[in-house]
Amino acid sequence: MSGWLELALRYIAFHRWKTTLLVLAILLTTFLPAAVRLLLNQFERSLVARAASTPLVLGPKGSGVDLTLHTLHFRAPPRDDLKFGECQALQESGRCLAIPLFQRFTASKFPLVGTSLEYFEFRQLTLTSGRNFALLGECVLGSEVARQLKLGPGDQLLSDRENVLDIAGLYPLKLNVTGVLAATDSADDRAVFVDLKTAWVIAGLGHGHQDLASETDEGKILARDDEKIVASAAVLPYTEITAANRDSFHFHGSENDFPLTAVIVAPNDQRAADLLTADYAVSSQTAQLISPRQMIDELLQVVFRIQRFFDANALLVLIATGLLLILVVLLSLKLRAEEMQTMFKLGCSRATIGLLQLGELAIVFLLAGALLATALWLTNLYAAPLLERLLLGSG
Amino acid sequence: MISIDRLSFHYPRSPFSLQVNSLQIERGEKVAFVGPSGSGKTTLLKLIAGIVLPDSGSLRVEDSDVARLTDAQRRNFRIARIGQVFQQFELLPYLRVRDNIRLPFLINQTLPWTRSKAQDLETLASRLGLSDKLQRFPSQLSQGEQQRVAIARALIHSPPLLLADEPTGNLDPTNKQNTLRLLFEQIESHGATLIVVTHDTGILDGFTRVIDFSQFQKSAGLDAPTAAGGAR
């Protein structure tokens, strides 16, 4: 080891608390702006990539940004519903592929997304185990859901009650896990997917119960005539869909009136996209057709305005820290002037004296740089997904 | 060993000046420079070491004309040919005793650190009674021990010339005698030349020659140093 390096390391080791303070000062002042930039860049990449792969979204009128975040990241659903008939009409127009989404419920706190099998093809989602849902009551888990809940094909998962105190409300439904999706580093990893009809059953629009036509217990029948039977509260709906009771499940009302929270619209071509957008802009009173990319760009503009504020603030802190560092270095040089004079008198080479003073500073910056890189790596690993979930409110 | 001829020196922006018409010091001599403060004793040591340069005249140490060497050559000459002991010891507080003694090898590539040098360090430390203190920091040593470390640092590379500026100035009487005895022993065992600057006339017995700078001041123009002006 070179003499100057050995001396520099000995000096740093002897003054370890001073060195630690210097390293921490550099680390803390550089970490915040670097981490903010790193996280925002990753957030931007994630948002833009998902938005770019989703051409148009149909949803109830309201905030376009909220609708986009709900459709792309399963954030809180819009207050109003869209009718399934809207999705059917779009599909039948022949101008696009329309993929329905209904997400008002959760399972073990993860968003429970009712959709069609086209969603998986559209998002290019593949299964790592099991198969896709095919029957009422079946579900497919995102990779993160499966990992956190330690569930796989053959296991069961209960949908969450909307309100545990609402004993007269909707019953939770026991879902059969049929498959687990491969990780995509997107909101799909943190969602539970069911068929649209299963989601409607959870919403109370469809249910299954014992056959009342042959029921002889009068306590369970309130009224009976040739056209209908009115059951009492003693008749409980099934909370699990099995092979034995699957056929008893049925829906009341017209399917076209059933709710959706959004529809992903993939137009056949640009012309179709323009026509559809114009149609909805002009004629629909209740629905809006939006471009997620446009909405995300608007959102990011706000985010980057905030980032610029952060950057300006960070720059001032960096300048202040830089000045303090210069002061510390100058004071250190002054304190060590006698030591350097001794070195000179003994015959220390000019280069060694220079290397000694610069070397210590370089080692301090290297230490701070190494710690900064580690901190940013950990931030990227743990804080980025956390921030995304916090900002997008999913999972 | 040392040959000075019509040497003249002054510090910039200072009334102090030093003239030495002629001074010869032979190899193996033990010379004491005595005299009042400001008479130029320390300045002459600095001139011999090449730390400051004469305005005129000649100053040869061994075969080198110190004033004619480049800065880098003077530094290399100093580290290789001269050992120095300072009044304030000037040990580096962040180095253990072992590394303080090894310092000349750490600060200039001219001196290569070898296995035999490491062995020399152990022997020297043992002779100076420092064997059990090699892992300590200077702050964990007494004044006498610190001075012994400074002497070991000056001798580790076996220089032919040892310059000591008030080496006993901060020591109690017992440590003073011990330090001098050690210095003489080491010098004699190395066959080196010793020049000591001191105010203490009570320690002059062991020296082969004493040069009194106050006498030279009174008899300016003789073959001896002459100083005028403030303290240095």
Q: Quaternary status of these chains?
A: heterodimer
Biggest sheet, spatial arrangement of strands of chain B: 5-4-1-2-10
- Structural classification of chain B: alpha/beta
Question: Quick one: how many beta strands of chain A?
Answer: 16
Mean pLDDT of chain B: 85
Shape of chain B: globular
Strand content of chain B: 15-25%
Mean pLDDT of chain A: 85
Tell me the greatest interface. A-B, 21 and 28 residues
What is the CA-based Rg of chain A, rounded? 31 Å
Shape of chain A: elongated
Give me the secondary-structure category of chain A: alpha+beta
Describe the secondary-structure layout.
The complex is a heterodimer of chains A (395) and B (232).
Chain A: H1 3-14, H2 16-52, E1 56-60, H3 64-73, E2 82-83, H4 84-93, E3 96-107, E4 110-115, H5 118-122, E5 127-130, E6 138-141, H6 143-149, E7 156-158, E8 174-181, E9 192-195, H7 196-202, E10 206-207, E11 221-224, E12 229-231, E13 250-251, E14 259-260, E15 262-267, H8 270-283, E16 287-290, H9 292-335, H10 337-346, H11 350-392
Parallel strand pairs in A: 4-9, 6-8
Antiparallel strand pairs in A: 1-15, 1-16, 2-14, 3-4, 3-15, 5-8, 6-9, 7-8, 10-13, 11-12
Helix pairs in contact in A: 1-2, 1-11, 2-9, 2-11, 3-9
Chain B: E1 2-10, E2 17-25, E3 30-34, H1 41-49, E4 56-61, E5 64-65, H2 71-81, E6 82-85, H3 97-101, H4 103-107, H5 115-127, H6 143-155, E7 161-165, H7 173-190, E8 193-197, E9 209-212, H8 213-218, E10 225-228
Helix pairs in contact in B: 6-7
Quick overview:
The complex is a heterodimer of chains A (395) and B (232). Chain A is an alpha+beta fold. In chain A, 50% of the residues lie in helices and 18% in strands.
What do these coordinates show?
The complex is a heterodimer of chains A (395) and B (232). In chain A, helix 1 crosses helix 11. Helix content of chain A is 50%, strand content 18%. In chain A, strand 11 and strand 12 form a beta hairpin. In chain A, strands 1, 3, 4, 5, 6, 7, 8, 9, 15 and 16 form a ten-stranded mixed sheet that branches. Chain A has 395 residues and is α+β, with helices and mostly antiparallel strands. Chain A starts with a helix and ends with a helix. The mean pLDDT of chain A is 85. Chain A is elongated, with a radius of gyration of 31 Å. With 232 residues, chain B is of the alpha/beta class. Chain B has eight helices and ten strands. A five-stranded antiparallel sheet of chain B has the order 5-4-1-2-10. In chain B, strands 6-7-8-3-9 form a five-stranded parallel sheet. Chain B is globular and about 50 Å long. The two termini of chain B are 25 Å apart. Mean pLDDT of chain B is 85; it is low at 218-222.
